[in-house]
Specification:
Shape: globular
Distance between the termini: 10 Å
Strand content: 15-25%
Order of helices and strands: EEEHEHEHHHHHEHEHEEHH
Number of strands: 9
Structural class: alpha/beta
Strand order of the largest sheet: 5-6-7-3-8-9
Length: about 260
């Protein structure tokens, strides 16, 4: 037995967009320090679950806890970092790679004393610059720190977005299709980076369509098709029988799937 709360705990959680249900009656618990891959067809509610966590989608019913607290509390203290599938940013805007990654620290910078926030950047709290340096190094973009983001390839842009999430030094990393549209070298680097983050004790929750990658890297696989189809090890979830259930949206057994990880 342990007193450590789950990274994410949902009880009978439902959500809707404009009265259209996108998630229904989700009950689960995801452990801290593990890599969970969320798998499901397009429109199954996978990204909606992440939006519930980051607060852009309010729950319709049910309860959601992050590290034993409300998501708002954990967002406020910086324990949740999010990498969107499609980032709404102007890639032609004249901003460098380093400046882009530094935006991941803004929430933490606002917690500095006012006098420190008013200092020129080179005199400001060095913790933030070190976090940016470490994040750029982690995704092999340190040599590109001064480049405008508009000059980057698709794979490099994904690395920068991941670096921005890493710079937050959050306990939980939420990733929505981080491998979509990247070249093989960037895919390999991103997966290796996430392996290191998990080894460092961070919780990774990743939406993905990459089943071979989920089999090889994830500790847990969460199958969602508007409701919870099942949760378990990659071997338990990514077999023909469970994937067939996923396609039709039929939970394997009982109420809410195969089992709930604790």
């Amino acid at each position: 037995m342990t007193d450590t709360p789950p990274a994410l705990q949902a009880r009978r959680l439902s959500a809707a967009y404009h009265q259209h249900p996108v998630l229904e009656d989700i009950t689960l618990a995801l452990p801290q320090g593990q890599w969970t891959a969320i798998v499901g067809p397009n429109g199954a509610g996978k990204s909606s679950l992440l939006n519930l966590i980051i607060g852009t989608l309010p729950p319709l019913r049910g309860e959601l806890r992050i590290l034993g607290e409300s998501p708002a509390v954990q967002r406020r203290v910086g324990n949740i970092a999010y990498m969107a599938q499609q980032e709404n940013m102007e890639w032609d805007f004249p901003i460098s790679v380093r400046e882009t990654v530094l935006t991941g620290r803004y929430g933490l910078i606002r917690q500095d004393p006012l006098w420190q926030r008013l200092l020129p950047r080179h005199w400001a709290n060095p913790v933030h610059q070190q976090a940016v340096d470490d994040a750029l190094e982690a995704v092999d973009m340190a040599d590109h720190a001064s480049r405008p983001i508009g000059e980057l390839s698709g794979g490099q842009k994904k690395r920068v977005l991941l670096a921005r999430a890493l710079a937050q030094q959050a306990k939980i990393l939420l990733l929505d299709e981080p491998l979509a549209g990247v070249d093989p070298p960037s895919e390999k680097l991103i997966l290796a980076t996430l392996e290191r983050e998990r080894a460092a004790g961070r919780t990774i929750i990743m939406v993905t369509h990459d089943l071979p990658g989920a089999r090889h890297h994830a500790d847990n696989v969460l199958l969602i098709n508007r409701t919870l189809i099942g949760m378990g090890s990659p071997d338990e979830m990514l077999n023909d029988a469970m994937l067939a259930r996923l396609a039709v949206g039929a939970p394997a057994s009982g109420h809410g799937g195969v089992r709930v990880a604790a």
